[in-house]
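ZP: hey, is the NAP complex queued? I don't see it on the tracker
AM: it wasn't, my bad. submitting now with these inputs:
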Amino acid sequence: MGPLLMLGAGRMGGALISGWRRAGLLSPADLMIRDPYPGDEAKAAIADGARHDPDLSAMGQAETVLLAVKPQLWREAAGEVSQALAADAVIVSIAAGVPAAEISKAFGGRAVARIMPTTAAAIGQGTASLYATDPAAAARAQVLFAAVGAVVELEDEELMHAATAVSGSAPAYLYAFVEALEAAGAAAGLPAASAQRLARATIAGAAALLADSGEEPAELRKQVTSPGGTTQAALEVLMGEGGLGPLLETAVAAAARRSRELGA
Ligand SMILES: NC(=O)c1ccc[n+]([C@@H]2O[C@H](COP(=O)([O-])OP(=O)(O)OC[C@H]3O[C@@H](n4cnc5c(N)ncnc54)[C@H](OP(=O)(O)O)[C@@H]3O)[C@@H](O)[C@H]2O)c1
C-alpha cells in the first residue's frame, strides 16, 4: 500500500488502523491522520510514526484518502483537503448513506469507492460492503478491506442502504441481543455475573461454530432443538407471530430508511 490519508480517526477509523497494522498492510510511516481529537488507535499509530495533521504538500502524496468522519461532517472534511490532493488520489468513503457521485463532486471529480465496514476489522474479522464504478477505486478498496475481513461487492449503489442495515449496523443488534439475554437470565433467577458469563460465552461460541462449521444456520438450529424440548419452547416465542422475523424486518427497514435520509 502507498501513503494513505485518513480524514477522521474515531471509532471506525481506529478499528481499521488496528486491523491494517495487525495484517501488516500499512506501516505508520505510510499513514497520515487528519482529526482534531484522534482516538486511541490513531494516537498509538502517531506515536509510532504516523503523521498527524499533515501539511498540504504531504497530503498531496496520498494515494488513497479514507473518508471516515460522521456522515453529517463529510462535506466539511472534503472541502478542507480536496485542493491539496493529487489528481489520481482515490477516495474510499465509509460515510453511511452518502452517494459516490456526491463524494466525487466534493473531491473534484476523483474516483470513489464506497464501503460499509464493521468494527471487527480491528481483529481481522470485519465485513465490508463495497460499491464502486471505477475499477481502480474498486481494486484499491478490495486490497484495503480484504486484508481485514470479508468483502461483498454490490452492483447497485441503492443496495448500500440495505447492506448498511444488514451489516454495518448489525453488530449492535447482536450486542443488544446479548444484553437482553443477560437481563432475561437475571430475571429468571441467575446471579447477574453468572447470567453475563453464560450469555456471552454461549453466543460467542455459537457464532464461532456457525463460522467454522459451514453449516446453514437453520441446520445448526435444528441440531440443538429436540422436539418438545426446552429450546423448542423458547423458539415458539422467538419465531412465532411478532417474533424475530418480523422484528428484524422492521429494524432493518428503519436502518435502511435512516441511511437514505443521511445521504439526502
Ligand atoms: N462506528 C461504526 O461501527 C461504523 C460502522 C460502519 C460505518 N461507520 C461510518 O464511519 C464513519 C465514522 O464513524 P465513527 O463511529 O468512527 O465516528 P467518530 O468516532 O465520531 O469518528 C469520526 C472522527 O472524525 C473527526 N472529525 C470531525 N470532523 C473532522 C474533519 N473535518 N476532519 C477530520 N476529522 C474530523 C471526529 O472528531 P470529533 O470527535 O472532534 O468530532 C472523530 O474523531 C461514519 O460516517 C459512519 O457512518 C461507522
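AM: back. The first strand starts at residue 4 and ends at 7.
ZP: great, adding it to the tracker
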